């Protein structure tokens, strides 16, 4: 046992329901295999939902975890750290990308301050209920967080997931907010997959060439500093992640334990997923990859997890937007599987 997350395998989605859904898919009034990966997506969601003729997902619930990162002071982002609290307010006001997309899909969107470097005066108290600390340490030279803070954040993430599931979620999406957060995401992925800084560093919000060089150096320094700590995912979160990353890991692991499917988003959520799968082997079977972001570390981690993204739109935003963009595909997949006639119904 480490922190709030047990290191034991999680039960897989129902194999019996998956087999029944596949039988139905193969019997639909189409040539065999005609739905391609849309059919595979339907079978996955059927197994997760426990019904070979699933509906929805109708109750999509998004949680955006916000946290600042000390590395943002080293010019690794194209934007200043002041954007993080401002964007928390913009999510609450309904004008953020995730809020607009969520509204268009009938999804709820909840933003939580886990480690924002601001007191967020005037925002509803609920938003700060799970706050662990202000900002995380600059991981190129110090740990992001203490072990106690990581334990608290893992437990918070698990509790947040349980609340969303109690509220009736039939699909969860995990989003992120925090200037500089593509840097710890790349370090977590690089450290766990044994990849070097040049391979995992991306442009994030759109840094220029000198910025990319600086960011690669910072990521290289962090990777060198945490070398030897990748074997223990909880310790690695303290060394190179931060409280918001640990909360995401706790959230994803708990969703799998409760048997609720998740659509993964960009490099932050996927770094959290890679870490959660190591803590809780088998959790990956409850997740599908919503999209491929432009961050190279995200592709590397998805490949390691054996997940093929549904969309590849060149998006690089985070917040959960790439996952939400894939929700209509998932709804189409279940509609096809559950609503179509069978070949045997045809008047041949
Ligand atoms: C206005 C704005 C809105 C955002 N929404 C998500 N991000 C995303 O970009 C940031 C990570 O990229 P980097 O590591 O390059 O800083 C995070 O805030 C992430 O949530 C945003 C960034 C900005 C500027
Ligand atoms: O890949 C992502 O999720 C991403 C890219 C840029 C900024 N924020 C997130």
TrEMBL record:
Superkingdom classification of source: Bacteria
Keyword check for Glycosyltransferase: yes
Record CDD domains: DMB-PRT_CobT
Classification via InterPro entries: Nict_dMeBzImd_PRibTrfase, Nict_dMeBzImd_PRibTrfase_bact, Nict_dMeBzImd_PRibTrfase_N, Nict_dMeBzImd_PRibTrfase_sf
Annotated metabolic or biological route of this protein: Nucleoside biosynthesis; alpha-ribazole biosynthesis; alpha-ribazole from 5,6-dimethylbenzimidazole: step 1/2
This protein's UniProt keywords: Cobalamin biosynthesis, Glycosyltransferase, Transferase
Pfam families reported in the protein's UniProt record: DBI_PRT (PF02277)
Entry's Gene Ontology BP terms: cobalamin biosynthetic process
Record's keyword annotation contains Glycosyltransferase: yes
UniProt family annotation: Belongs to the CobT family.
Free-text function comment from the UniProt entry: Catalyzes the synthesis of alpha-ribazole-5'-phosphate from nicotinate mononucleotide (NAMN) and 5,6-dimethylbenzimidazole (DMB).
NCBIfam families the record matches: cobT_DBIPRT, PRK00105.1
Protein name: Nicotinate-nucleotide--dimethylbenzimidazole phosphoribosyltransferase
Organism, scientific name: Nakamurella alba
Name of the gene this protein is made from: cobT
């Amino acid at each position: 046992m480490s922190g709030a997350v047990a290191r034991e395998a999680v039960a897989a989605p129902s194999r019996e329901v998956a087999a029944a859904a596949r039988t139905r898919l193969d019997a639909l009034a189409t040539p065999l295999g005609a739905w391609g990966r849309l059919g595979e997506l339907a079978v996955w969601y059927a197994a997760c939902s426990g019904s070979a003729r699933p509906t929805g997902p109708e109750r999509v619930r998004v949680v955006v975890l916000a946290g600042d990162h000390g590395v943002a002071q080293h010019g690794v982002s194209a934007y200043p750290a002041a954007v993080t609290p401002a964007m928390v307010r913009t999510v609450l006001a309904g004008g953020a990308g995730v809020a607009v997309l969520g509204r268009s899909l009938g999804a709820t969107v909840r933003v939580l301050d886990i480690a924002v470097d601001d007191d967020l005066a005037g925002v509803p108290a609920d938003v700060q209920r799970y706050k662990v600390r202000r900002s995380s340490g600059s991981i190129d030279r110090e740990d992001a967080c203490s072990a106690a803070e990581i334990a608290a954040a893992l437990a918070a993430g698990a509790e947040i997931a349980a609340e969303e599931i109690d509220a009736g979620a039939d699909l969860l999406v995990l989003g992120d907010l925090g200037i500089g957060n593509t840097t710890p995401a790349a370090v977590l992925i690089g450290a766990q997959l044994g990849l070097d800084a040049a391979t995992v560093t991306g442009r994030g919000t759109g840094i220029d060439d000198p910025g990319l060089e600086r960011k690669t150096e910072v990521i290289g320094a962090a990777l060198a500093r945490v070398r030897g700590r990748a074997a223990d995912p909880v310790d690695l979160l303290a060394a190179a992640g931060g409280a918001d990353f640990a909360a995401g890991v706790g959230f994803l692991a708990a969703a799998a334990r409760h048997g609720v499917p998740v659509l993964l988003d960009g490099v932050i959520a996927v770094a959290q997923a890679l870490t959660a799968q190591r803590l809780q082997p088998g959790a990956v079977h409850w997740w599908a990859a919503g999209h491929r972001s432009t961050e190279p570390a995200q592709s590397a981690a998805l490949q390691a997890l054996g997940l093929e993204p549904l969309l590849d739109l060149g998006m690089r935003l985070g917040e959960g937007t790439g996952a939400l963009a894939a929700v209509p595909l998932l709804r189409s997949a279940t509609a096809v599987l559950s609503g179509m006639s069978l070949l045997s119904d045809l008047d041949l």
